[in-house]
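Colleagues,

Please find the record for the two-part complex below.
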Amino acid sequence: MSIMEYNGGAVVAMVGKNCVAIACDKRLGVQAMTISTEFKKTFQATPKTYIGLPGLATDVQTLAEKFRFKVNMYRLKEEREIEPRALAHLVSSTLYERRFGPWFVEPVIAGLDKENRPFICSTDLIGCINFAKDFVVSGTTSNQLYGMCESLWEPDLEPEDLFETISQSLMNAVDRDCLSGWGAEVTVITPEKIITRTLRSRQD
Amino acid sequence: MSVFSTYPGQVIVDNPVSVPIEHRFDPYVDNGGTLLSISGEDFCVVAADTRQSEGYSINSRYVPKSVKLSNKTVISMGGCYADCLTLTKKIQQSMEWYQHAHGKTMSTAAVAQMLSIMLYQKRFFPFYSWCILGGLDEEGKGAVYTYDPVGSYERESCRCAGSASSLIQPFLDNQIGFKNQESNKTKLSLDQVLRITKDSFTSATERDIYTGDYLEIFVITSKGVEVQKMDLKKD
């Protein structure tokens, strides 16, 4: 039994043309038993940035609250919103503080910087940042997500096409993972607006 | 315990203690690689990469994983290459016996069942091989049979196995099975299937270290078996 596979979950983020998208499943389980189908793993950090937190559910909740605190403190001190790249480093340091007793999450960050340039990255559970240009995946479904994203993603997708691509990647990947699924939520971030949609998917 | 020496370097103990040492030999080796098979209306495609690895090393860039058994049947095996080789030999020899006894080539369904029995005969020391059998059934339709290492088998429309199977299988569900999308297409042409196969392997090669080098595709139609080879990334 692996701690990262205790609750299950999947998060994926992709870069499009002047937009980013982040998506997660909604299952919360205790090994084989599903406890909740409304456990979303993406959280809004700033008006233009989202963090996805798959992994051990207690750490997902704790870190979501810790990052909310840290982002708020940053805003009070700096009198501006935190940029996605700075948020990535903030997440990385927070995780590395617990290098020898880590938080069991592998976060994904997606957002637009102040010039509305798309930014995504992911980190491992001790804070090593992967600055990807195309897509990042995390959670128990990461292998399946890698396969789907590698085949379906192409550069410069418009927001509507990016939504379709990320939705298909997530839905088909979680259908091959028994610990993820039971609904999905996709957020597309553009300079003008953020649209969050719930997907109609297999409920098993 | 008293210890005395006769010359430098030699130590003699007067009450030696013997401790049992456990010797172990792990009979299985994972040689990696990925294979897939897709069945069509009147054709079947069996594809496999050709890299053979052991841990982080590459044994060879070109060791085919698929073997043509007859004009209608191709088998592909991943896992422990030694077991795959022996299993292939057993199948080929059994097919030859059958040919002499019955005066005809074994049908795909017959080979499928025979393979299942062969695998289960080694239930308590299994062949570490992930088999996929592709071919044409007696009606000329494409058939894919998938196996686990101890012989559980099932006929399916498409399947992938091996190290990158978790990467490719959801893609096949989406593109061949049209899952999670609105579609009224039910049949795919050979061209479409070949494009999906090549895309699957190029994607798998990007993200799986055990997949790469070359891709060998066997296309089985009523005309026979045709082999295509294409390059994959070698890193």
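Helices of chain B lie at 81-102, 108-121, 165-175, 190-207.

Comments are welcome before we finalize the supplementary table.
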